[in-house]
Write a structure and sequence with these properties.
Layout lengths: L2 H37 L3 H6 L14 H8 L5 H32 L3 H13 L8 H10 L8 H21 L4 H9 L4 H12 L1 H17 L2 H6 L8 H6 L10 H33 L4
Helix pairs in contact: 1-13, 3-13, 4-5, 4-7, 4-10, 5-7, 7-10, 7-13, 8-9, 10-13
Length: 286
């Protein structure tokens, strides 16, 4: 095969690959696009013309958004407040405690540390449904059933992935840097916050993004643990958009779903490059 034939074959390969990736991209984008077009469509046409563009008599404007935010006797902005509170507190706890634990596990080569590490990794493959009823009862008995205490529960579930990524990154940090800090008089706590913590930024950002997306969109854990009559996150609020006889206003539902995913999409698009950097950095060693 001469050079021209090789270049032509490479172009064909790239073209086929581009077409396949574009088709996969469309498959992933289609559900989001469906939510967008139906959020501006009257409820009747959401059921009959799901994939049609909302024009003419189908167009509902912002009626669905207003209806969804004012439906029932529970304010939508309370749900936004509780979702934001739980997400911020949970992510902060996960980033702080798992990064400290990962640093200790990576630097202290003992049987106990290895056991803790492998237990954390194993927790990533345990389905939530296996422990949800026991967890709900335990959280209730320990008074972890409020927006201010449920982040402790999220800390337990989010520790597996976070520790796995942090340990891999810490192992790539030269030990001589920490030894130099120790010679200068830094204790373990000061060494962590002054030396190790700043270097964890790539993995810290990527773990934070993944945890924020998970906690913000989570429905089952808050539904099982929180008192839903007093505390409702956005997914729970959407679940309760029901009228008489169990009828659901799909237009209002789609509108609130769109409002709930917009912040996460914007946040992800801004920070997506850090996810790749953080994952790659955490895979250097370990």
């Amino acid at each position: 095969m001469n050079r021209q034939e090789s270049i032509a074959a490479e172009r064909r390969r790239k073209t086929v690959l581009s077409v396949v990736l574009a088709a996969i991209c469309i498959i992933y984008v289609l559900p989001v696009l469906t939510v967008v077009i139906n959020s501006f469509k009257l409820n009747t046409f959401v059921k009959t013309d799901t994939f049609a563009i909302p024009t003419g008599e189908m167009w509902a404007g912002f009626t669905n958004f207003i209806k969804g935010m004012t439906f029932g006797n529970y304010p939508f902005w309370n749900s936004v407040k509780y979702s934001a509170l739980i997400t911020v507190l949970s992510t902060a706890l996960i980033l702080l405690f798992t990064s400290m634990a990962a640093w200790y596990i990576a630097r202290v080569n003992s049987f106990f540390c290895k056991l803790v590490y492998y237990l954390c990794v194993f927790s990533m493959v345990v389905p939530f449904q296996m422990v949800m009823f026991t967890l709900s009862k335990t959280a209730d008995s320990l008074h972890l059933n409020t927006p201010w205490t449920i982040p402790i529960v999220y800390l337990g579930f989010g520790a597996g992935l976070a520790i796995f990524m942090f340990v891999g990154f810490v192992k790539s940090i030269p030990l001589e840097i920490e030894e130099a800090a120790s010679i200068d008089g830094c204790g373990p706590v000061r060494t962590y916050f002054s030396v190790v913590f700043p270097m964890l930024k790539p993995t810290m950002i990527s773990v934070g993004i993944l945890e924020i997306m998970w906690v913000w969109n989570d429905f089952l854990l808050p539904y099982l643990v929180l008192d839903i009559n007093e505390y409702r996150t956005i997914p729970i609020h959407i679940q309760y958009l029901k009228g008489s006889y169990g009828t659901v206003d799909l237009g209002a539902t789609m509108a609130l779903i769109l409002l709930s995913i917009i912040p996460v999409i914007i946040f992800y698009l801004i920070c997506q490059k850090y996810i790749i950097k953080g994952v790659a950095a955490g895979a250097v060693k370990g």
